[in-house]
Amino acid sequence: xxxxxxxxxxxxxxxxxxxxLDVFRRCGGPALLVPEQFAGLGADPVQAVRVQRAIGARSPxxxxxxxxxxxxxxxxxxxxxxxxxxxxxxxxxIARDRLLVxxxxxxxxxxxxILAPTMRAQERGGRIVLNGSKRPCSLARSMDxxxxxxxxxxxxxxxxxxxIALVPKGTPGLSVKPFxxxxxxVGTQSxxxxxxxxxxxxxxxxxxxxxxxxxxxxxxxxxxxxFELLMSASYLGVASALVERMLASSRADAGxxxxxxxxxxxxxxxxxxxxxxxxxxxxxxAALARALVCRYATQDAVARAVTRCVEGLGGMAYIGADDVxxxxxxxxxxxxxxxxxxxxxxxxxxxxxxxxxxxx
Length: 360
What we know:
Elements lengths: L1 H5 L3 H4 L6 H7 L18 H14 L1 H20 L6 H12 L3 E3 L16 E5 L2 E11 L7 E9 L6 E9 L5 E4 L13 E10 L4 E3 L8 H32 L6 H26 L4 H30 L1 H6 L2 H9 L9 H12 L8
Parallel strand pairs: 1-4
Antiparallel strand pairs: 2-3, 3-7, 4-5, 5-8, 6-7
InterPro entries: Acyl-CoA_Oxase/DH_mid-dom, Acyl-CoA_Oxase/DH_mid-dom_sf, AcylCoA_DH/ox_N_sf, AcylCoA_DH/oxidase_NM_dom_sf
Keywords: FAD, Flavoprotein, Oxidoreductase
GO molecular function, one term: acyl-CoA dehydrogenase activity
């Protein structure tokens, strides 16, 4: 995949209708996090973080968009540990047919968990009817499936239960509206996905059996972990693209080049540490706290490295082509992904002072 992406100019990879998504699909990228027993590649968190950094260095839009695909797949894998087993058939389809999955979860909604319900759902004539919208929604125009969190009346008739609905592209009532107006990261196809009385069969709605032993909070924490690590790695890749350009330049002195290397490689080491922890039992609040600390540290490292790279490459590199200016602009978007640093500041301080971790 890297060889294919390297042959395509950055400007082409960052268009809305870009070839990067086709390359990703053709090279088997949709199967990255699908377990091997379900025809996937079975990448562990460390491998996934490294892949996203590499993709981010080739195409920021492709890295950000595919992070949302991987987040959806990882959530389905985790869901499979709690439900009846239908989602394993879906994971096999994603891997074998190279399907792209868009995320309609609550990423980006202030005050909600990342898996909090975003759609209204009701049962009608043996079907599940969905209404609502998600904006921005990456992969809105190239997705094969949309995953969305919903609340449904519990099967025992008491209260409501949590579920994940799977909506195939082309389902009547599903539409896409323009939303993303910036030229930066337009290749993520982050437009608005609207569901207007969308009917899905019950077998495309995965109910989650929440119990005291397996609370919903565990699923949310897992989702947050994957999201923060993969998104941070993606933007670290964007900064790494500029670092790579400066290392190849004779203009900057060794001290400046070494300083940006220290920034990006120390941030990567921190992300890999949390990713490795996920494979060795780091779970729950401790994992989430470490992931958030690493995310904000990466955010700072990216900002420092990009500023120094732009300065080190010089004005002629900046004005001579669009790549340097574009990569610098794209790198800043990590700060806009949830949870925002200011919103998490008090929660992090309270956690490290002994209180439970909470995400406002």
